[in-house]
Amino acid sequence: MKNVGEAPQEELATGERSTRNRVARSILDHGPSTVAELAGRLGLTQAAVRRHLDALVADDVVAPREQRVYGARTRGRPAKVFALTDCGRDAFDQSYDKLAAEALHWISQAAGGGELGDAAVAAFARARLAATAEKYREQLAAAAPEQRAETLARALTADGYAATARSAPVGEQLCQHHCPVAHVAEQFPQLCEAETELFSRLLGTHVQRLATIAHGDGVCTTFIPRIETAETVSPQQEPKTTTASASTAGRNPA
Q: What are the φ and ψ backbone dihedral angles of 175, each rounded to 5 degrees?
């Protein structure tokens, strides 16, 4: 039999785990976050958030890092943010990474390896997005030009990418806070390149990938320049963007 007092302790432990999972999920959905941001989103005190973050850091689920700043840096020390580690991301739908990587290695080698192998993987990456491209195109076609980035973000979120769109000084930034294929994309940047090309086709304008989770950034960030009258183009047309080489795809050019 359980001793008196064990049940409340178990309930408390369950509640702690639940809240801790909410903290980790909030970082997944919104990207690297400060203590204040997490407290505001979750309705917790900053002291409570710090306690849960300490536990998540100890479990190698999240790690502190200096906040990345795009554009002019303000005075003072950069805020500390907490981002998911590879171990933390493993808990969110990445159980088939090894199989996917092995399949892409096989495709590359079957095509002859080297440049031929890279081209075969790139062709697979584009074909993989073909059905998604048509679905997204239909949604974007019904949106006003100024709403297309937000519409694309909602479509990506529905497919598990936890995406948001926000205004930037001369355009918008599309942020994907989760990537189901991040570990595989570390080895095969063609996946990121194909996705960037897809965004360019759908939005009808050049886009620039600033950062990717696959390359160690806390969030995949794509810059979309502001345009007055963008026409959505067919996913079969050539993209209006020039992608980076396989060795630099997704890196911040700054």
A: -115, 125
* Bridge-based pairing state of the strands 171-176 and 220-225: antiparallel
What is the spatial distance between Cα 11 and Cα 16, in angstroms, rounded to a whole number?
A: 9
Cβ atoms of 154 and 89 within 8 Å: the answer is: no
Q: State which H helix or E strand residue 176 sits in.
A: strand 171-176
What are 87's two structure tokens? Answer: 């171990």
CA atoms within 13 A on the CB side of 119: 5
Radius of gyration of the chain (CA): 20
**117 Cβ contact list (under 8 Å, min separation 6):** 107, 108, 109, 111
Give pLDDT tens digits for 79-119. Answer: 789 998 878 877 765 556 778 889 999 999 999 999 999 99
Are the CB atoms for 191 and 243 separated by under 8 Å? no
Tens digit of pLDDT for each residue in 85-94?
878 877 765 5
85: buried, middle or exposed (CB in 10 Å: 19+, 13-18, 0-12)? middle
Average pLDDT over residues 211-224: 91
Which residues, other chains included, contact 163 with Cβ-Cβ below 8 Å and sequence gap of 6+? 152, 153, 154, 156, 157, 174, 175, 176, 177
In this prediction the pTM is: 0.59
Select from 36, 58, 33, 56 the least CA-distant residue to 47: 36
